[in-house]
Amino acid sequence: MAGDTRPRTGRGDPRRGPGAGRAGGARPPLGVRKARRAEPRGDDPSRVACAHFPDCVGCPLVGTTYGEQLRGKDAALRAALAAHPRIAPVEPEKIFGSPLPFGYRNHAKLVLRKRRGRDGRAEVVLGVYRPGTHSVLPAERCRVHDRRLLPFLVALRARIEESGIPIFDERSREGALRYALARISTESGAIHLTLVSAIADPAGLDRLVERLRRDEPRLEAAFLCVNPTPGNSILSSDVRRIFGPRALLDRFGRLVLESRPDAFVQANPGVATRIYADAERWLDPRPHDVVVDLFGGVGGFGLALAPRVAAVLGIETSAAAVDCANGNAKRAHQGHVRYLAAPAESAAALVREHGLAPEEGGRLLVVANPPRSGLSVGARDAIAALAPSSLLYLSCNPVTLARDLDALAEGGLSLRRIRPFDMLPQTPHVEVLALLDRDAAASSGAEAGPATGA
Ligand SMILES: C[S@@+](CC[C@H](N)C(=O)[O-])C[C@H]1O[C@@H](n2cnc3c(N)ncnc32)[C@H](O)[C@@H]1O
Question: How far apart are CA 196 and CA 180, in angstroms?
Fold first, then answer.
């Protein structure tokens, strides 16, 4: 076992109980913040000991009660909105907390590193980068991962060490194994492992995979991704199947979504299920409506809305995700759903090309779920050209969301509802769902459906 993963003692000891670090529970002096703790407390079962606290920085809120975390996220959203006084003053709805404050995450993405242990022997570390550096902190026992991944990751680290397959060295650029990605289906418990290697055929790989299959009957598939390139991208497009099915199936409420190592799927199925359900409730789709699902991933939004509308066109740049989205539509018998591998910036042209204007009485509904950077100017222009009746925007960054809401208001789309969700407990991240409707004044000049211009 890597030395740093052992429980710590002394200052910052996650196993120490309430009051640890201050004699007899005396109050800290005014203005001094209480020491952070990461130990279960009678009044808050969400506090659990973490083997990597406080060294690992992946979960900076792990010593904060879950209630405080939710209040902080609500405040972060309000502060981002307040920076743009032109946004319609809409009160955010109550934050939706994660059903699981720990053990919620359906995948682990970890770096492999070789180092000298305390006894002088070389050992393998499976962990995360210390921010701003390339030094790696152990994280194989991370508590936010689905708890069924924990024994697998512990065994994986030990088996890789035992296999003798050389770990990639960033400085010399020698060695093979760089990263390990483990994904789990929340519903079935099936695990898919992807090992990222700088070389195509690391000696000992088959034997390693065989041992892992023996250790862990849940291991349903393994992949090798060959990525020799410098830079921060974990995956390349060269993903080879070692054994098992290509796609991992999981359930998000009534949706069954397949994903692959290189296709994005929401990290917290319990929260994503609620977001897809709210999307349907908020948009309240009707039979003649047409949906355009921008940044569609494996099709979660499009498929949540599909049974109630005339057509869905999904637009997504990742070919692997588009393949999964079309597979998901087929599995769900939704023949009127189609996903295309294209940038969201080309949405207006694609909608025209595919003749997707809604029929008389139908509305054009757009969903956008961009990465943290938010909508590019090109994507905002495409939405303006589509002139949707409503836009549903899911964001993982309240700052870029507020910026985009401000710009979209200029184009006649006004905020109607907004709600934060806690997709990633123990971290400061907050997910936000916003519904924008076309202003009455703006829609009186535009027919339902996309504008014919650019
Ligand atoms: C936050 S994920 C959205 C996933 C999806 N909506 C869901 O619910 O699972 C963002 C997606 O946008 C895709 N993407 C990034 N830039 C894009 C662009 N310019 N146009 C279209 N898709 C893009 C990424 O590949 C990724 O799948």
Answer: 6
The answer to whether 104 and 142 are in contact (CB under 8 A) is: no
Domain at 107-251, CATH from 3.40.50.1820, 3.40.50.1440, 3.40.50.2300, 2.40.50.1070 = 2.40.50.1070
Choose the CATH number for 268-444 among 3.30.457.10, 3.30.70.120, 3.40.50.150, 3.80.10.10. Answer: 3.40.50.150
C-alpha distances (whole Å) from 104 to each of 101, 118, 273, 398 are 7, 33, 13, 22
What local confidence, expressed as pLDDT, does residue 134 receive? 82
Whether the pTM exceeds 0.70: the reply is: yes
Of the candidates 151, 156, 147, the one whose C-alpha atom is nearest the C-alpha of residue 125 is 156
Does the Cβ of 295 fall within 6 Å of ligand 1? Answer: yes
Q: What residues does each domain of the chain span?
A: 107-251, 268-444
Q: Is the CB of 317 under 6 A from ligand 1?
A: yes
pLDDT tens-digit map of 241-273:
999 999 999 999 999 999 999 999 999 999 999
Whether the CB of 426 sits within 6 Å of ligand 1: no
Q: How far is the CA of 196 from the centre of ligand 1 (A)?
A: 22
